[in-house]
Amino acid sequence: MKTLRNRSDVSQGRNPDRHKRKHSWRRGSLVEVTCSCVRVCFGEMSLKGRFLKPGDDSNYAEDRSDVEPTSGTSFIFNPNRNLSLQAQRQRLPVFSLRSHILYLLENYQTVVVVGETGSGKSTQIPQYLQEAGWGQDGMICITEPRRVACTTLAERVAEECDVILGREVGYAIRFDDRTSPGMTQIKYVTEGLLVREMMADPLLRQYSVIMVDEVHERTLFTDILLGLLKKVQRKRKDLRLIVSSATVDADQLFRFFNHNATKDKTKDTAAVVSVEGRNFPVDVFYLQEAAADYVRSSVDTVLKIHTKEGPGGVLVFLTGVEEVDKCVSALREESSRLGEKGGKMQVCPLHGSLHNSDQLQAFLSPPQGVRKVVVATNLAETSITLPGIVFGCIRKRTLPLSAKLHLLRWSELTCPLLCLTSWLLGLIICCVSTFHLHRQPVTS
């Protein structure tokens, strides 16, 4: 096996000069596809901001307020906090593939990592790269589709690395950059932010490895980013790309990033590695018939669980902020009506428009004897893990090519989405899942 650029020595101890690395900020030639894609994304298709008329009395808050440099920005649930950090990391399924992933990254430009939720892809792989020395010649960048995922993952990795968030490990999201130039080696960013960075530095020369996480969500920025990174790889042979997903078709990504036009397998530029997850059994129940008012049906289902089932949290998926607020208000009203005899409920909304401190309430453990109910959009579908969820009760956002804008439409739950939701619920504890979709024959 080829030596990993003498990185084995680095992985055994810290380099005292690791903070003195220099970045190359040379501008490369702008690829035509970069211009066109960025114009489409930030030109004609730019979404207008949300404005209020004079005199409007609204409870809208800014996306993210300024925080003190030493204050925490997110809450991380750690079920194994009684163990040492090293023991916690070794319990993750991805740990057994550490050497194999580093070997593939040394010999291939692109590595496709397919692993179920909870395998440790998002937190451990960046640390493996940093320990092997990949963070010395450039930063290790990890893209996430949501801001809350960037903040929570960055804080968790900073905790495991025993560093202050914003120094060796940081994140950059809209209106909040917690990184230190010349010091940060692991950087979590949103997909849209990385696309914006490409407008100033098309070849992304400040990064040595870019990891695109949660590819299975296939957002608009995900598709643009994958296309641009493929173009960048042709200009930068030293750039390494990791594509991580829970359910995506690995063969399709392999063919997309493999620049080998011959049948000689030794000339492949991409490789695939699969990581097993840690799942518990999930019992799935279907409604007998489709619900006319699925928000009210969700409230009724939660109340039945609360009054008839044992202890455990409840996670409800809804389609948008308005319906989440409607469901939360109804549940809180019903909880007040039930009183002490019916048992207490702590109802927490979870969506991207909430302030960070409000989002953290969904991660905190409820008081003794209180059932936590989290009402969320697809923000909680992947990227984050909610502790204590035992019960789970989808109009889906789509992007029709003809319309060229996002639309909220009803769509049936597909088998991959059902499986992904089951993986999420079975991540921590045995669960019971209730889908608001009448059961229909499924063909493979």
From TrEMBL:
Residues 1-23, 53-72 are annotated as: Disordered. One of its GO terms (molecular function) is ATP hydrolysis activity. Residues 53-67 have a biased composition (Basic and acidic residues). It is an enzyme of class 3 (hydrolase). Pfam families: AAA_22, Helicase_C. GO terms for cellular component: catalytic step 2 spliceosome. Residues 102-266 form the Helicase ATP-binding domain. The keyword Nucleotide-binding applies. It catalyses: ATP + H2O = ADP + phosphate + H(+). It comes from the Eukaryota. Keywords: ATP-binding, Helicase, Hydrolase, Nucleotide-binding. Its EC number is 3.6.4.13. InterPro entries: AAA_22, DNA/RNA_helicase_DEAH_CS, Helicase_ATP-bd, Helicase_C-like, P-loop_NTPase. Belongs to the DEAD box helicase family. DEAH subfamily. This is RNA helicase. It comes from Scylla olivacea (Orange mud crab).
